Structure to design on (495 residues):
């Protein structure tokens, strides 16, 4: 917080004041933001403080003049001058005794929603509560929103009188683009009733708002296992979508009999529906490369972790079993597994995957802002079992990569495709009967001669992999949302 920001507090306007249990219409609007019809997950920051106290010096000249007048009255035996000096000194004494206000404040900043999508509006509410026993005659508060964001509604500062137990509260709206956005501190300036004593407090309320484009869905292949899910299969049975009719068999439920056909032909037939089963999907993370397109951009390792977390969340939401494995160089021609998470379901599984990536690759995917509902229902993500299904075991020893992929499982391989070892790994997975989806972040830089060669070589690998049966490819540029790349590639897939 700089001095210019502190000075801004003086140019404030009145804001909503509320008591401990009362909420005004203005503050209710700030809570909901007016943009969603369902309860929003919010991010609240409670600030710590550092305080400076100033006593303004505009009364010093008056004190000097009062002393001079009193002294002159004594020396000159002038009663009027002496009394004028006494009055001035009495008033100066009152001012000095009044001093700056001492009532403590509790300052909170709340952002709703806490995980906005690109282009959304987020409502920021700052609340400064007087938790002392004395009123604050003149309180002025200013927030420091991210410099790269536009304030589209409301003000970032406010002023008012705050009684004990009440609060000064104001809200403003920000338009949130993709990326990370850092808030600064909150500054509060409180003046005493005399207007002389000033208490300036800087509240350390720094926080980061992360905005990403979530992956809503990932179209899986028809390779499924036992159990209900949302992957459409090419077989008839239980379901909701009509599949075919077959000859009636004793024991078929009456609700499945095609009574219209029976009425017209006298033939008993049974209606079958397209089955929707659960898939087992293992995410293989190629974290061997630290390449990046430019300084300050994410590395290939970070992008592969990002893609894994986003897509694993989407696949878990569709009631599928999800596991993960982290690659390393086993030899010059093959890669093994540094560690893995066995297939599992439920909100805790994504935390196990994040814990694996943090432990084995040093990538803290908390920075990727995984959905808050999963975070709220879990611990540290280092559990060994999953009550919702699947083992979810974390295996930490080095072992064969293919040992992490159960029979009948699909594979999502997140790799930058920067060497031929990745291509051979894909061939080996396909040879074992696993439908493989390759998600490849492009970290090549065509602005240099070496980068151009690397880009052309990677394009050749992409073409080779895309031409392999049972392989689907997502070529993803980090400049675009991952979902856009998935949708573009999915239009070409024959699931």
């Amino acid at each position: 917080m700089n001095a210019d920001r502190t000075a801004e507090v003086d140019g404030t306007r009145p804001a909503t004041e509320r008591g401990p249990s009362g909420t005004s219409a203005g503050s209710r609007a700030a809570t909901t933001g007016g943009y969603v019809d369902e309860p929003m997950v919010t991010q609240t920051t409670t600030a710590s403080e550092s305080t400076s106290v100033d006593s303004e010096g505009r009364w010093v000249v008056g004190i000097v003049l009062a002393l001079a007048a009193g002294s002159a009255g004594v020396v000159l035996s002038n009663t009027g001058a002496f009394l004028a000096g006494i009055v001035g000194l009495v008033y100066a004494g009152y001012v000095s005794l009044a001093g700056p206000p001492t009532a403590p404040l509790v300052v909170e900043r709340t952002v709703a929603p806490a995980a906005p999508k690109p282009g959304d509006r987020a409502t920021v509410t700052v609340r400064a509560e007087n938790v002392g026993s004395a009123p604050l005659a003149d309180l002025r508060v200013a927030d420091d929103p991210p410099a790269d964001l536009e304030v589209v509604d409301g003000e970032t500062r406010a002023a008012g009188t705050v009684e004990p137990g009440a609060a000064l509260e104001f809200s403003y709206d920000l338009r949130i683009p993709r990326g990370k956005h850092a808030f600064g501190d909150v500054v509060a300036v409180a003046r005493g009733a005399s207007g002389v004593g000033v208490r300036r407090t800087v509240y350390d309320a720094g926080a980061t708002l992360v905005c990403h484009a979530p992956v809503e869905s990932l179209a899986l292949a028809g390779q499924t296992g036992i159990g209900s899910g949302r992957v459409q299969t090419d077989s008839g049975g239980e379901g909701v979508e009509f599949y075919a009719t077959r000859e009636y068999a004793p024991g078929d439920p009456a609700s499945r009999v095609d009574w219209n056909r029976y009425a017209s032909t006298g033939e008993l037939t049974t209606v079958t529906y397209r089955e929707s089963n659960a898939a087992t999907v293992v995410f293989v993370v190629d974290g061997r490369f630290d390449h990046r397109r430019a300084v300050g951009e994410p590395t290939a390792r970070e992008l592969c972790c990002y893609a894994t977390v986003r897509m694993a969340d989407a696949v878990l939401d569709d009631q599928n079993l999800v596991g993960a494995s982290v690659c390393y160089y086993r030899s010059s021609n093959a890669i093994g597994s540094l560690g893995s998470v066995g297939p599992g379901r439920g909100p805790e599984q994504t935390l196990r995957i994040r814990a694996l990536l943090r432990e084995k690759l040093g990538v803290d995917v908390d920075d990727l802002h995984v959905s808050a509902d999963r975070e709220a229902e879990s611990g540290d993500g280092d559990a060994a079992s999953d009550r919702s299904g699947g083992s979810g075991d974390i295996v930490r020893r080095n072992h064969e990569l293919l040992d992490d992929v159960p029979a009948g499982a699909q594979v999502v391989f997140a790799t930058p495709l920067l060497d031929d070892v990745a291509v051979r790994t894909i061939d080996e997975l396909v040879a074992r009967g696993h439908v493989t989806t390759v998600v490849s972040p492009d970290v090549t830089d065509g602005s240099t001669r070496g980068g151009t060669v690397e880009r052309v070589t990677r394009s050749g690998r992409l073409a080779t992999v895309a031409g392999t049966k049972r392989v689907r490819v997502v070529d993803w540029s980090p400049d675009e949302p991952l979902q856009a790349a998935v949708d573009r590639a999915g239009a070409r897939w024959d699931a």
The chain has four domains: 3-53+102-211, 57-98, 228-277, 280-490. Residues 79-98 form the longest helix (20 residues). The longest strand covers residues 321-331. Residues 1-8, 10-40, 224-237, 368-390 have pLDDT under 50 and may be disordered.
